[in-house]
Design brief:
single chain, 130 residues, alpha+beta, 7-stranded antiparallel β-sheet, 2 helices, 25% strand
């Protein structure tokens, strides 16, 4: 089934069933992620641990009020949001700036993916700063 964005925005924190994207996970596990490119349903996963292979950025409770403890945003890989997501909050504009900085530095995505994500995040910041 194709992704339907509904009222999602870049920077939204979403939660969905882990089994929608990862085989072998506990059915009670949920994925928490930040939306980075709505048209394709792309998001980046929030983890409780810093995993260097995923080029993580620390995200504090202050940058995302939904979190109950400081966590880490994995800047790789891109995860597709399934249609059964729920919006739990939004990250701060300053955290979106951190995502942009990290993606520009790591050069891990294909050129097309990187440009779509960076354009999406920069457009979001422009709207927020009006």
């Amino acid at each position: 089934m194709d992704f339907t964005p509904g009222d999602l925005s870049v920077g939204d924190v979403v939660m969905f069933d882990a089994l929608q994207n990862f085989r072998g996970k506990d059915p009670d596990d949920n994925i928490i992620a930040v939306c980075v490119y709505i048209s394709e349903g792309w998001c980046l996963k929030i983890n409780s641990k810093n995993r260097p292979m995923y080029h993580c950025i620390k995200i504090t409770k202050e940058e995302c009020f939904y979190l109950d403890k400081d966590s880490y945003l994995s800047c790789h890989p891109i995860i597709k949001i399934p249609n059964n997501y729920s919006v739990k909050g939004v990250v701060s504009s300053s955290f979106v700036e951190k995502i942009i900085e990290q993606i520009e530095q790591i050069e891990i995505f294909s050129g097309d993916q990187e440009s779509k994500i960076l354009n999406s995040l920069n457009n979001y910041l422009k709207k927020m700063n009006r």
